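Appendix B, record 7
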Amino acid sequence: MKRATIKDISLQIGVSTSTVSRALNDHPDISDSLKEQVKQVAKALNYHPNLMAVNLRRSRSNLIALIIPEITMFFFPSVIKGVEEVVHREGFQLLVLQSQDSLEREIQNLRVCHDHSMEGVLLSLSAESSDVNHLSELKEVGIPVVLFDKSVVQSTFDQVLINDFEVAYQAVTYLIEKGAKNIAGLFGNRNISISQERHKGFQQALADNGIDAYKAPTIFASSLQQCQAASSALLQRHKPDAFFCMSDEVAAGLYPALNAANIRIPNDCKVIAISDGNLPYFMQPTLTHLHHSGLEVGRVAAQRLIDRIKGIVKEPEVTTKILSIGIVELGSV
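Structure tokens (predicted):
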């Protein structure tokens, strides 16, 4: 069945489309009886207003775009939930797009945001994005952008981040305080800033505690499967007494490799991760972690963007919000 329109209602009742429109919007010039008649016919025809047309007339889309590298079981579902909570509460609609960690795909998504007049954009940069030059077109037409999760050196857009260096440093120092001396590091894609900064924090914590950082076993892996395979290979050559995992994904790859090698956690090997906080409770033993809440990231980034849209925050004020992280002590250390 074709979608019912205001014209269908007007033809059935015998009044003009403008009268129907005013009746549906409770205009004071329309009698209560006609309003009721129009609404009953609209309900019978299952009429719903065309929000795109309404918003075009109002010169706004009421849409906010969230662009992320990909939707996996780790971190980003919580981000989406946090963003959606705020966006819905503030009366906007959310469009989620994926870049697949490709700069070209990211640019295509930004073109969609431009062409569909998004109210604002929340963006987690792709692994191939080394700057924000490709965001200039949105800035020129007044579409605000808030970056989160991955950072690049820039002074144009608001950012919501954690201190990746400091969090990794804190995690490794914690392992050392618990008696670890031979610590291995597991990291994600080596091309992205969070992997690089967390690796620097890992190395600095080792060096500051008199451990040769350059001899520490280190893995960079772009997927859970790669991490599991690389961890299994590493365990054939080394016997670390602790592992630092930069994310849930690499921790999920490490656990099966340790189990397959009959290495007991935490008796033979301690494990700590930076985590969104959901996965650790499903691991055996439960995973000690520094809690990096995707839910909080989503909420904070979305609220900052909406404050921009509403003019509560004005140019040229640009901020980088650094979220705090705390250790959750569970069973793996």
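Remarks on this record: The longest helix spans residues 193-208. Residues 6-49 form one domain.
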